[in-house]
Amino acid sequence: MGRERNTENQWLDWAREIQALAQTGNTYAENEWQRERYRRLMEIAAEIVYTNTKLPFDTMMEDFQFQTGYATPKIDVRGAVFQDGKILMVKERIDGEWTMPGGWVDVGDTPSGSVEREVLEESGYRVKAKKVIGVYDANRVKPLVFYHAFKFVFLCKILGGEARTSNETSEVNFFSEDEIPINFTGKRTNNRHLIDAFAALKDPSINTVFD
Hints:
The protein is α+β, with helices and mostly antiparallel strands.
């Protein structure tokens, strides 16, 4: 059975899969002959990306070769933190867009521990992760990025702290469902995440959603 494909950007699906196969194959290669062939697969993936985006070929190859081990999706976590029915959002310094606080899970950390740490670092609030709202395939929505990722959104309870910006965030604020900023990032937070978060707030017994 073939894999589900993103027909609009099929080149990206192909490049991702070729790069992942090359990375995994290179990890278990037993001789230089095999490694050279996996390197060629990486070059083909980089050529596909270059042809469709004009991102520098050398930069893509350097990044591909930096990835080691069995290729698996990365894990991103987001905290849905509420106060008086409003959701906590932070503005990212990198692009000036709003998102639920969160980030990549560090090696050795737990998903819940990661989201609690990220919320504190980015917003100043100490929280406790109480429930998984949803587990999402982060690469099924635009803007598309190269490396495959899964996103965990946690419903979190405030334990203390106060609004505080960080080296990553320039603003911290709470928004009601009809006040969400127009310039919120689709990469880190999108409409579906917010809809599911407010639904979980209104009905704590609601089931976890997942792709």
